[in-house]
Design goal:
Elements: E1 33-37, H1 77-81, E2 85-86, E3 89-90, E4 130-131, E5 136-137, E6 141-142, H2 152-155, E7 159-160, E8 174-175, E9 183-184, E10 188-192, H3 193-208, H4 213-228, H5 254-268, H6 275-282, H7 285-296, H8 322-328
Helix pairs in contact: 3-4, 3-5, 4-5
Length: 339
């Protein structure tokens, strides 16, 4: 079992009670934060703020426009579909991309066009991770769709939501002294406690097999129980969407447990930089990413993904700089395979 630890301010490591509070600058260095890139606003230099995400701020007029930039790092169609549930559980069989399970979106619609958001059952983490048309976007307003998207045909209808500052943070936990207001005091979580729980669940199965199922189930359900406590609400207190999420009653075998743990990582850690590296270490990057490309590519009007593919045995690694190979000699520093 996971040993108890404490944060630098003496708190016991644990999950923050509400999922969205992990990504609030006002809640930095909370009990879930184990290792985080520290950011600060209004220090005299925007370089002390979080500069990695300033280009991901919603585009054009809002929410804090004009002059915003740049609507990069947009969530994909498939990653929204991950959050479809059946009886409150993920679609571990991979049917989330099947017709009838895909999340309804406003692709190719103007912001003034009529649109009804998806009414099917969803994991609430979708709406703390992905900006969707017609639903509250943090504490700003309902997300208007295309008006806040740089180029729908190039990257789709969704907008990132984690690492975007709240209206309540403007001028205090956000730095407005540079060319874009997207510089924030939001720390970037390199390792957070939810990640540790899911790594521990994975390790239980890898090391102990069926003997680790009970502990793995406990760790995964702890993460899912927090999600059950994190519905996005409208101003009138009603749920913003049809949230249906449950914990697992059991993991019947090792194969099922492995699927459940891996899927939970993609739901919980979406847009936090773990997904590619998880796929590589699991040895499934090529089939998963090529299936993703086959599904995703036809959805973009500008053909942004046309011709893209993932080559097993090559694309797991980047090429080493030739200048460094020349400096040290190819007998010492050898190029990675395929380059």
């Amino acid at each position: 079992m996971i040993a108890n630890g404490k944060t630098s301010n003496g708190k016991k490591y644990d999950l923050v009670p509400k999922f969205p509070d992990v990504f609030k600058a006002s809640n930095d260095n909370n009990e879930e934060s184990i290792w985080a890139y520290q950011s600060a606003a209004n220090t005299g230099s925007v370089n002390n703020a979080n500069p990695e995400f300033d280009l991901n701020w919603p585009y054009n007029t809002g929410p804090d426009g004009p002059g915003n930039c740049c609507s990069f790092f947009q969530p994909t169609f498939e990653s929204a579909n991950w959050y479809r549930t059946s009886a409150g559980l993920p679609l571990l069989d991979g049917s989330y991309n099947a017709p009838g399970n895909e999340v309804v979106n406003d692709m190719n619609l103007e912001s003034g066009d009529p649109f009804t958001p998806d009414a099917g059952p969803l994991d609430p983490r979708i709406d703390h991770t992905i900006g969707r048309r017609g639903l509250p976007y943090l504490d700003w307003m309902d997300f208007p769709g295309k008006a806040w998207i740089r180029n729908q045909p190039n990257a789709g209808p969704y907008q990132t939501k984690k690492f975007v500052y709240y209206k309540a943070d403007k001028g205090s936990l956000q730095d407005n002294s540079s060319w874009t207001p997207g510089y924030t005091a939001i720390n970037f979580p390199i390792i957070r406690f939810a990640d540790v729980l899911l790594m521990a669940a994975e390790a239980e199965i890898a090391v102990n097999g069926a003997g680790g199922i009970a502990n793995a189930l406990t760790y995964v359900n702890k993460v899912r129980a927090r999600a059950k406590n994190s519905f996005l609400k409208r101003a009138d207190g009603t749920n913003a969407a049809n949230y249906v999420i449950n914990t697992y009653a059991s993991f019947p075998d090792v194969a099922y447990a492995t699927k459940a743990i891996r899927f939970e990582r993609q739901l919980e850690l979406h847009s936090e930089g773990h997904r590619f590296f998880d796929l590589v270490r699991w040895g499934v990057a090529a089939p998963v990413l090529n299936a993703f490309l086959a599904y995703e590519t036809p959805k973009y009007g500008l053909g942004a993904l046309n011709g893209a593919s993932f080559e097993a045995g090559v694309d797991e690694l980047l090429p080493l700089p030739q200048s460094q190979i020349d400096l040290l000699g190819s007998d010492i520093l050898k190029q990675n395979p395929g380059y």
